[in-house]
Amino acid sequence: MAQSGVMKDDVQAATDHVVGLHDVSFSVEDGEIFVIMGLSGSGKSTAIRTVNRLHDVTAGSVEVDGTDVADLTKKELESFRRENMGMVFQHFALFPHHTVVDNVAYGLKVKGLVTEERRRLAYEALELVSLERYCQSFPRELSGGMQQRVGLARALAADLDILLMDEAFSALDPLIRRQMQDELLAMQGDLLHKTILFITHDLNEALRVGDRVCIMKDGAVVQIGTPEEILRDPATAYVAEFVKDVDQGRVLQVESVMTPPSPFTLGTTVGEALAKLGVKGSAFCIDDDGKPVGVVTRDLLTASHQAPVESVMRTEFGVTNRAALLVDAYELCASGDLVAVVDDRGALEGRIHALDLLAELGEIESKAEQVKTADLSDGKLRQ
């Protein structure tokens, strides 16, 4: 019935069976954080649990490095789960009668490592999540966020290439949750380089953590894209409804709003600067290495037309880089002045202004409203 196009709710009404997933297809690249996001009942947890065959698929295949998980025997499946991927659950699943270090080392014990080796690896994993001081504590003596970090350390200790994280941060308080997101991103960038399949019901979290995001609804894929693609080009009214509540500044980077700098060089005269500014109110002045040294604005160009711009330019200005999040540029733009976007050498490669930020955020909200309006006019259900 599902393959013939019957909707999930209609299948359940007619057969009392629930369609968990239908026509779901995606790939996760090596070293990528791939996020599956959706509301309760969307199929996101079912999707992640097919990867290590906690659920069997009735059609299609689930391949990990070329191995179809559905074809594995019971013994092969046990080895596959032990050797290929670790899982971090929403509810920490810690042994209450074991110390923190023994909880972390448990998977290594199952793999047959000797006590000394598994404790060494467990301590190293606890250091990654800043819990080495609590190694001899019991789970009940830790906060919820600390217990979740123990769960993460347990998965890290096994040093497996793939991590499955099923709503791993969803049970945490907002502040602790953001800290865990920060820690995950920091570890992934500097140390881990794991392939991570991450499940969440929170679009803000999905867009913040994911390299790419898959949005699901009723067991089907609605849209797959980078965080910026999801924000800029929501595929349906369902996605657009989510997007309108997203903190865009914590997703978009400065690169998305910066414009060409069109700078002056040292030695440019006031007269030349006036002519070059045209309708622009301001521009940067750069030195021989291309580094910004000042801002020239039209209201400052009141000196003799033969005077060099460096005699009238303002030398205090904000500086950022193209990879910075927009939220980090808000304060820099608050004064209404230009902000310099520089590369790793400090050379000027772009500029941003408060108006650029406002225009970008307004355009995204406008696009989301257009998508919702178009979907509704076509008779598609908003929800």
Overview of this structure, please?
The protein has about 375 residues and is α/β, with parallel strands linked by helices. It folds into two domains: about 10-225, Rossmann fold (3-Layer(aba) Sandwich); about 255-360, CBS-domain, CATH 3.10.580. It contains 13 helices and 14 strands. It has helices spanning about 10-15, 45-50, 75-85, 100-110, 115-130, 145-155, 175-190, 205-210, 225-230, 235-245, 270-275, 325-335, 355-375, and strands spanning about 35, 65, 65-70, 85-90, 160-165, 195-200, 210-215, 220-225, 265, 280-285, 290-295, 320, 340, 350. A six-stranded mixed beta sheet has the order 4-5-6-1-7-8, sandwiched between helices. Strands 9-10-11 form a three-stranded mixed beta sheet, with no helix packed on it. α4 (about 100-110) packs across α5, α5 (about 115-130) packs across α6 and α10 packs antiparallel against α13. The chain is globular, with a radius of gyration of 26 Å.
Tell me the series of helices and strands, N- to C-terminal.
Answer: HEHEEHEHHHEHEHEEHHEHEEEHEEH
Structural class: alpha/beta
CA-to-CA gap between the ends? 22 Å
Number of domains: 2
* Coarse morphology: globular
Give the oligomeric state of the chains in this entry, treating copies of one chain as homo and distinct chains as hetero: single chain
Q: How do the strands of the widest beta sheet line up side by side?
A: 4-5-6-1-7-8
Q: Mind summarizing the main beta sheet?
A: 6 strands, mixed
Q: Average the pLDDT over all residues and give the rounded result.
A: 86
Q: Which fold name corresponds to the CATH topology of the largest domain?
A: Rossmann fold
Q: Which second-level CATH architecture of the largest domain applies?
A: 3-Layer(aba) Sandwich
Give the C-level CATH assignment of the largest domain. Alpha Beta
Per DSSP, the total helix count is 13
Classified in CATH, the superfamily of the largest domain is P-loop containing nucleotide triphosphate hydrolases
**If you compute it from the alpha carbons, what radius of gyration comes out, rounded to the nearest whole angstrom?**
26 Å
How many strands? 14
Helix content: 25-40%
What share of residues are in beta strands? 15-25%
Q: State the low-pLDDT regions, or none.
A: none
